[in-house]
Amino acid sequence: MTADGLRTEIHQFIQKNFLFDDSKAIDDDQSLLASGIVDSTGILELISHLEGTYRLKFADSELVADNFDSVNRIIGFITPKLQA
Amino acid sequence: MCGIAGIVNLTERGETPSAGLLARMIGMIRHRGPDEYGMYRDGHAGLVHARLSIIDLASGQQPLANEDGSLWIIFNGEIFNYVELREELETLGHRFRTRSDTEVIVHAFEAWGEECFARFNGQWALALWDSRRRRLVLARDRVGVRPLYIRESGGTVWFASEVKAIFADPSVPRAVNIQALAQTFTYWASVAPLSFFEGIEELKPGSIRVYEAGGARRDTVYWYPKYPARDSDPSPMDVREATEALRTKLDEATRLRMVRADVPVGSYLSGGIDSSVTAWLGRQAKTGDFRTFSIRFDDAEFDETRFQRAMAATLDSRHEEYVVTRADIARVFPDVIWHTERPILRTAPAPMFLLSRLVRNAGIKAVLTGEGADEVLGGYDIFREAKIREFWSRQPASQCRPHLFDRLYPYLARSPKRAHGLAVEFWRQGLALAGKPGFSHDPRWRTTAMLKRFFRPEITSSLALRPMPDVLASLPLEFGSWDGLGQAQFLEVATLLSSYLISSQGDRMLMAHSVEGRFPFLDAGVMEFCNNLQPRYKIAGLNEKFLLKRMARGMIPAEIIDRQKQPYRAPDAISFVHPAAPSYVQDLLSEESVRNAGLFEPSAVCTLLSKLTERAQAMDQNENFSNTDNMALVGILSAQLVVRQFVHGSALHDGPPVRFTTMIDRTAEHTHREGQV
């Protein structure tokens, strides 16, 4: 998958599951928790989506906001794993 | 317990309220008082009353007047200290014709004017009509146990226990108040004086509204909860004295609620400490048969059967249970919303609707419940959560302080670290608000306000021009001087207790089946005493309701005192998205219905529904929807039901005509008087 493809897919997942609107978009650096886009259960939905779609497995210690709190953070965190 | 309604013309030459309309108004709320109906009419005013007879069965009919017939009352509720007030009034020379509490109100008002309300210990909503001065007085109990709605237009005032009675008048426009919609999707309910409907006000709890002839109006707040100033101790007591004092107060409050009734009083048992304590005290107050009632859940996650049965065995009561399923919740939900008359974000009222039916079928008209204990004695997680957040805010970099959340929410400690770091991030938001009003409720309000993303763009832009009233903008002046727990308690009472728990989940669900709830923890003396307690007697460390637990030892089974507090919840969105869900769900959430109602974005609702429907099939037993998704679905579905049932109105179902047993018609007298002038 291309880097752009990954970015688009994550945006679409967020739009469909948390914004419920394909026409609304968020900034790549916008904090998902601070801006109220996801609650703590919601972010677990996002994580299991990433694990399922990209066949990844995250360690418990990796599940911190630093890794998942924005589109850019997610991409920065999972890209090396996808290339590994 | 009863229902009241009325129309008053304050202009010189207003129309005489129509008897037919008044009858239809009271007919709409006949569930509140199916035993007897009464009407009073003169040239300016019409008052109607539906009675649930509990005190003075033989002679307590309403409307009722003072000795010379100039001051008339309709009254919904109970004044529990009416016997003591009556004695006091008799020494002042007042003479009584009945044994009812209603007559005591009339005399108390004559003796003390509006000051009388602060002397009442009870739960009420009432209207007093001074036909001579053409003055209308409306008043409501301290925390708003009993409801009262008002509409005024062109010199005419409509009022009623429920909005549907006002809507019985076809001339009254019916539309959603979108500021109330915004409040609902923030505070979990609209907050008085806003009602969910445009042009209809809810009288604020603890307040009085007076209309003078000609239409001038005046509001007076006679009570609101007050808390100790930070680091002060207004009632210094050691823990033993405080426990003893709490017991004395609560015992008296419960005793009054047991003996001031001419019918048997039963009790709810939730399985928690609060209702166990009030049931136990109630059991001691009166000899003979004692009936208890409980809701059980098909879903193990919500069920508390074991504790309910342990308490019933301790009481040796005649215990009845109703097992609630998801299908039950979906089935009764439209009826539930017919009674709440406003959207709700949780389904928890639905089981209470089924429970009151069980009580009514058992022939019981009044029950004790433990409602109010968490508010007055510090039981809620939101209070403890705020305490941890405040403590954490002093060292925001601390890694160990946020681990205190594990003590609060054991599921965090149980679940592998998975949820932990992320949940903590959630609470980190808003930490900087520490010390400012609203700090305690910020996480809840912020999470709930996320639901506003479902609003249609027109609603959002209209709210930008006319924002919803912010409860933080109308706080008492001294709010900032109270300690953190007191501030949190105040906000909890103002938003959740009055606007949701004792209304949507309380009065409305009980009265749907003509059952009166009685709440010892909301007794005037108990509230005053508890509000003044030092915070550490409410929450000691993180031990909630510390004083109540101490008091309850030896009274109720230890396993109920020592169990982890379980918030009362019911299956939420999951009740509506399974394949066997009733067809109204799909119908009301369809693009067309959502567009017609005009509140939410149809495509967003559609996406939500399909997301939850898919997830419901994929989820295993231990998974749940996110809190936000649960609230979104229940909130939107209930708002759609409100619009269908009340705004689009074809469904304003009106039963057979009401037959009045009390009919006072002074319209002719009035015309005659006017003729003489």
In a few lines, what is going on in this structure?
The complex is a heterodimer of chains A (84) and B (677). Chain A is mainly α and 84 residues long. Chain A is built from four helices and no strands.
CATH H-level superfamily of chain A: ACP-like
CATH architecture heading of the largest domain in chain B = 4-Layer Sandwich
Count of domain modules of chain B: 3
Give the second-level CATH assignment, the architecture of chain A: Orthogonal Bundle
Helix content of chain B: 40-55%
Oligomeric category: heterodimer
- The rounded Rg of chain B comes to 25 Å
Shape of chain A: globular
Strand order of the largest sheet of chain B: 10-8-9-1-3-2-18
Helix content of chain A: 55-70%
**CATH fold group of the largest domain in chain B:** Glutamine Phosphoribosylpyrophosphate, subunit 1, domain 1
H and E string of chain A: HHHH
Number of helices of chain A: 4
Kindly identify the CATH topology of chain A. Non-ribosomal Peptide Synthetase Peptidyl Carrier Protein, Chain A
Secondary structure category of chain A: mainly alpha
Instruction: Determine the most extensive contact between two protein chains.
Output: A-B, 26 and 30 residues
The tally of helices of chain B reads 29
Low-confidence stretches of chain A: none
